[in-house]
Amino acid sequence: MAVNWGILGTGNIAHLVAEDLRRLPNAELTAVGSRAQARADTFGDTFDVPHRHGSYEALVADPALDVVHVATPHSAHLEHATLALEAGHAVLCEKPLALNAAQAERLIDTARRHDQFLMEAMWTRFLPVMDDVHRLVHEERVLGDVHLLRADIGVTQPVDPTHRLFDPALGGGALLDLGVYPVAFAFDLFGAPDTVTSSAVLADTGVDAQCAAVFRYDDGTQAMWHASLGADAGRTCVLAGPEGRLRGTRAWWKGAPFELTRSDGATASWARPYEGNGYQFEAAHVMACLREGRTESPVMPLNESHALLRTMDALRAEWGVAYPQEA
Q1: Residues catalogued as catalytic
Q2: Does the structural domain 128-273+309-326 have CATH classification 3.30.160.20?
Q3: Residue ranges of the Gfo/Idh/MocA-like oxidoreductase N-terminal domain (predicted)?
């Protein structure tokens, strides 16, 4: 049976998701909502969407929908996901789930109160190569006891105070947009850290333009990561243990190949290429959860989304980064 999707927002992520929904035989992109009717119509023409709504309120009032993908800036996730949940729709909300942990708690409470499905769109967790990483690290234990993760992610974005990445009102900064990927990877592999050491360089607008942290775990594991809006350090990651290392090649969070080097020098690689942008895998997971009657994902559970934001809140507090909505 087909699952009817609505997309709330018409920006870049909305376009990528719409392209990938076409790759799922049981997914129907039924509706789109924008704050301007003209943008909804343009998006609808591009992706052959039958229902085009000139407001978000009209979108969530559409009775044809099963699930709404919230594809608006970080600062609007609480408001827009709440709209959809209270209208009786399942929600896949772009990452991070909300601007901070307090907002995430409110959103999770709303979903549970209305008995509706809610998931943070941590799309990289559902990419095929990540299944290989989990199998190699946790099941086959090819590295032995893994006690080290090193990851970086960076772009060279020209400084523009009006760009969403530098605008505090839109939840800008390297952490929430980029750093969330290595943070979530560390959580996925090791759980929440026991202690955190960090540093950040702030932009003139007050958001973090560059940040780095070391997560330490009581068993001796360390996860070190770096995120930047102004420097590209290679976009790679490494997992290491006494039996070898597993290296994620450039753009590791997008499903790039992973290369294994064993302690005896033997090498192997895992590549799981896919068509499209990679968002179809999380969408397929959401549809499977809905068919099974779930109200949250076992792969990206709500308590973990909340814990991620608690950690990122603590990092921002240490750096002195706050958003106007938190005043």
Answers
A1: 95
A2: no
A3: 3-119
